[in-house]
Design a protein that fits this description.
2 domains; TIM Barrel; 14 helices; Urease, subunit C, domain 1; alpha/beta; seven-stranded mixed β-sheet
């Protein structure tokens, strides 16, 4: 290290143009890549990939794993939602902090180095309000060392034209005025922290906005939401929304508005590159054309979408036509960036009966990882997702001795990563050039794990 800079060298580096051999990253004081240079070795690691941005997460739902799996009639997303409501109503602000801290540590160990936290649990069972609940998330991300984009969620109603149900009240900010007050307070806090920030204090956090969905937000309020956000955040901020996730949602929208959710969204506010549409599973072909034309990102969450039985988004066709995709851990029942990519590709194979659906000429692993990392960077609105000058040095290093690629070289290693590996096969994970996890295991000690265990135990006792 010289002049506050550091140098990290690798036998292989996944660059924007493909896999390169013998490369070093020069990392500046801010944690950004200042240069990429040839390096003959010895190296600090085997094969380095850009850290995967997690484009969609509800951290508190990590505590839902193992719940709601008993068959009850025609079980569906909507019965799962009742289990989620029970969890949300039972969590205190301290519980949320403990669960989020555990989940964020798992994300780092799983190859996610940044996260868009779609945060809609605004009230705790202990009486905590929106500012306290946001602090629980911020503190958990800071302690874990993950790069955070906090997306406070506007949640106004219980369905198309329906009032909030009692179990949905923890998600309310008191309508749009209360939401904008929360956003303004968070923005002021971020500016204050940035002014006092020491570049060695870990990754900074940023803000965006998230109307939950068109069933939970009056589409007529979207222009006022975006204008209010612009007043406190400026012109460049990410906007995320759940849309067209379930057939029942699409049909309810048709009944209430005579059209589909994406069409309704597009009628009330122009889509653009700062928009991320989460799931869009049941988008029509015409809607997909409009999404691509707008340059919007589609955040796909294959593990959660499979868990909930949502269906399959036509990712291969969307990408082949120029669509931008990212991946997210969503409900966090399993947190594994490699697993998300494998389910993404394998789902397309199962639905089409063809192989290598998201592959390029050089193979599957490199192109798919690069594509989803770049899409995640667009979704988060951050200079991440690519190992090149100006981007943050957020990266994942493969364990050279992991079983899936023993004896392999070059692109075959990346193909083996996506088709046969998991987070257990990852080595060192870096955020801003600092190592935050090692060996595919969360960096925390036993205290974080025990706090999480205790929360899950108490939730089980409260809710049955």
């Amino acid at each position: 290290m010289a002049g506050g800079r550091m140098r990290l060298s690798f036998r292989y580096l996944l660059e924007p143009g493909g896999l390169a051999e013998g490369r070093a990253l020069v990392v500046d004081e801010e944690g950004r890549i200042a240069a990429v240079e040839p390096d003959p070795g010895p190296w600090d690691g085997y094969l380095a990939l850009p850290g995967m941005p997690n484009a969609h997460s509800h951290a508190f739902q990590r505590a839902l794993a193992g719940r709601g799996e008993a068959r009850r009639g025609e079980d569906s997303f909507w019965s799962w939602r009742e289990a989620m409501y029970g969890l949300a109503e039972s969590l205190t602000s301290e519980d949320v902090a403990a669960v989020a801290r555990f989940a964020f540590g798992e994300m780092l160990a799983a190859g996610f180095t940044s996260v868009a936290e779609f945060h809609y649990l605004h009230h705790g069972a202990d009486g905590a309000g929106p500012a306290d609940m946001a602090e629980a998330i911020l503190g958990a991300a800071r302690d874990a060392g993950i790069r955070l984009v906090l997306l406070p969620v506007l949640y106004e109603r219980g369905g198309f034209g329906e009032p909030l149900r009692p179990e949905q009240r923890p998600f309310s900010t008191g309508g749009l005025p209360g939401y904008l007050r929360l956003l303004a307070g968070l923005s002021a806090r971020r500016r204050s922290e940035e002014a006092a920030r020491d570049g060695r204090s870990g990754p900074a956090w940023s803000l965006g906005v998230a109307p939950h969905s068109l069933r939970a937000v009056d589409p007529g309020h979207l222009p006022a939401l975006l204008e209010g956000a612009r007043e406190v955040l400026g012109d460049a901020f990410p906007v995320h929304v759940h849309v067209s996730e379930q057939p029942a949602e699409v049909e309810a929208c048709r009944a209430a508005h005579g059209t589909t959710p994406i069409d309704l969204l597009d009628r009330h506010t122009p889509l653009g590159a700062r928009w991320t549409l989460v799931h869009a599973t049941h988008a029509t072909p015409g809607e997909l054309v409009r999404i691509r034309a707008a340059g919007a990102t589609t955040a796909l969450c294959p593990l959660t979408e499979a868990w909930l039985g949502d269906g399959l988004f036509p990712a291969a066709e969307h990408v082949a036509s120029g669509g931008v995709i990212a991946v997210g851990s969503d409900g966090n029942v399993r947190i594994d960036a490699v697993g998300e990519l494998r389910w993404l590709e394998f789902g397309q194979r199962l639905s089409s009966g063809a192989r290598a659906r998201l592959a390029g000429a050089e193979g599957l692993g490199g192109p798919l990882w690069r594509r989803c990392a770049a899409g995640g960077a667009a979704a988060l609105g951050l200079p991440v997702g690519s190992l090149e000058p100006g981007r943050f040095a957020d990266l994942v290093v493969l364990d050279e001795d992991a079983a899936p690629w023993l004896g392999q070289e070059g692109e075959a290693v990346l193909d083996a990563l996506v088709t046969g590996a998991s987070r257990a096969d990852l080595g060192d994970v870096y955020v801003g050039g600092r190592r935050v996890a090692r060996g595919g295991t969360p960096p925390e000690g036993g205290e974080v794990r025990e706090r999480y265990r205790e929360v899950v135990r108490r939730v089980r006792e409260r809710t049955g």
